[in-house]
Amino acid sequence: MSNPNPFQTTLGTDAQWVVFAVMALAAIVFSIAVQFRPLPLRLTYYVNIAICTIAATAYYAMAVNGGDNKPTAGTGADERQVIYARYIDWVFTTPLLLLDLVLLTNMPATMIAWIMGADIAMIAFGIIGAFTVGSYKWFYFVVGCIMLAVLAWGMINPIFKEELQKHKEYTGAYTTLLIYLIVLWVIYPIVWGLGAGGHIIGVDVEIIAMGVLDLLAKPLYAIGVLITVEVVYGKVGQGGSLAFDCLKILKWWKLLWFQLVSIHFSLCVCRVTSYFLLN
């Protein structure tokens, strides 16, 4: 099995700094913009501020620790660096990316729960597979892909079931954004299979590919979501049925506040984990 460039170099680190800068800039721009938006639109802004802030934190941790070349999986010729901070990022940001779309629907809580559960399981199988040596890693890869198919099926349901649709104005944009996100999320396991899984591409190439996907799936996707809610809100108006009531905003704000607090926790986890792995 080939294993080109099994460790991160300055090329990968530079790419991580670039992604960090873009994510941080997006978070700052969204944070400024939300101050001038009406209350019913602010929840979506907060979700995407959290996404970009968490991603920026993760990429900062990756760039700072990238030169340590640890932790690794395998030994000898098969040894390869595992960029574990990206999985910590995904555990927090992928549910929020789905939440962007969930807020455009009338999904029941039970449905949201198993979709989010499948999402977290997908990430968990990804990181376990990355640290697994030999052909056993492909078991985790396949199960992770099954989890992706499960959550994709759940997210597709509102397109065809009217009872899950919030408003006809949302349906077209929801479909477009969902297809865009699913296509990107299908590319992620392909890159994983070529990198952490198959050792066909080097760590630097994997970092660059994942970074491009993260930029497309986070700040660019966020712009599409924000344009959607702005346009629909403009059509329906402040008195329309799409406006969120204050209690619902407060309910979701508690969730987002927890996610924002977890940003600092995730950075601490990265630091503590690095300490134990490097010593």
From TrEMBL:
Listed GO CC annotations: endoplasmic reticulum; plasma membrane
Subcellular location: Membrane
GO molecular function, one term: monoatomic ion channel activity
Domain of life: Eukaryota
Main location: membrane
Pfam families: Bac_rhodopsin
Keywords: Chromophore, Membrane, Photoreceptor protein, Receptor, Retinal protein, Sensory transduction, Transmembrane, Transmembrane helix
Transmembrane segments: 15-36, 43-63, 83-104, 111-132, 138-156, 177-201, 207-234, 255-278
Mode of membrane association: Multi-pass membrane protein
Any one biological process term the GO annotation gives: phototransduction
Entry keyword Zinc: no
Gene3D superfamilies, per the entry: Rhodopsin 7-helix transmembrane proteins
UniProt entry tagged with the keyword Transmembrane: yes
Family to which the UniProt record says this protein belongs: Belongs to the archaeal/bacterial/fungal opsin family.
Name the record gives this protein: Rhodopsin
Species annotation: Acetabularia acetabulum (Mermaid's wine glass)
